[in-house]
Amino acid sequence: MGLFRNRGVSDDERDRIPPGQHLVRDFPVLHASGIPYRSAPPDWDFRITGLVETPLRWTMQELRAQPVTSVTCDIHCVTSWSKLDTRWEGVAVAPLLRELGIHELATHVVAHAEEGYTANMPLQALLADDVLLAYRFDGRELEPEHGGPLRLLLPSLYFWKSPKWLRGLELLDHDQPGFWERLGYNNDADPWKEERYAF
């Protein structure tokens, strides 16, 4: 089935599609609940808390005043679609966390999003060069359907680990399963190992 669905792709593209995935040219819209808002409320903020020396709170204006980093990457959804060469802009996470001062006991991160949604990941995954607090996609403002005004971009893992409508990152000294992990999704979520479900 996978080979059939990937007809018409180049050898280079095929090599970049993990097992069990198929290539899409559009950008499918999937989320667990409704879109929380079409534009950020006046009291919107973003926070980094937990095991950092200097906790952070940014307004939207403060977020947008930070240096902009661009990332081009492939993304892979657990529902089996992959989209190649996606273009994102936002704030690079690794230098920001290092500037805030990562406590030596920190090992994991919980990303907090609207409506209580969370996603967990090892701190080391978040320190990759291609991880962003993303607010632009393909040269335009990130649409609410895709997580605007802000989503986490963590391309190395299945895309549920890149929460839409992001509001904060919490550094912990232990792992803490997120929304989908508590419902049976795999904790590690490596698309190249097909780590989709816990069973």
Order of helices and strands: HHEEEHEEHEEHEEEEH
Number of helices: 6
How would you describe the shape? globular
Using the coordinates shown, work out and report the CATH topology of the domain at 43-69 and 88-193. Sulfite Oxidase, Chain A, domain 2
Biggest beta-sheet profile:
6 strands, mixed
Count of DSSP strands? 11
Strand content: 25-35%
Derived from helix and strand composition plus strand pairing, the structural class reads alpha+beta
| CATH architecture grouping of the domain at 43-69 and 88-193 | Alpha-Beta Complex
Amino-to-carboxy terminus distance: 22 Å
Classified in CATH, the superfamily of the domain at 43-69 and 88-193 is Oxidoreductase, molybdopterin-binding domain
Low-pLDDT parts are none
The share of residues in helices is: 10-25%
Description:
By secondary structure, the protein is an alpha+beta fold. The chain has helices at residues 2-5, 11-15, 60-64, 93-100, 123-126, 179-182, and strands at residues 22-23, 45-50, 56-59, 69-76, 81-92, 108-113, 118-122, 132-137, 140-141, 151-153, 166-172. Strands 1, 4, 5, 8, 9 and 10 form a 6-stranded mixed beta sheet that branches.
Q: What is the topology?
A:
Elements: H1 2-5, H2 11-15, E1 22-23, E2 45-50, E3 56-59, H3 60-64, E4 69-76, E5 81-92, H4 93-100, E6 108-113, E7 118-122, H5 123-126, E8 132-137, E9 140-141, E10 151-153, E11 166-172, H6 179-182
Parallel strand pairs: 1-5, 2-11
Antiparallel strand pairs: 2-3, 4-5, 5-8, 6-7, 6-11, 8-9, 8-10
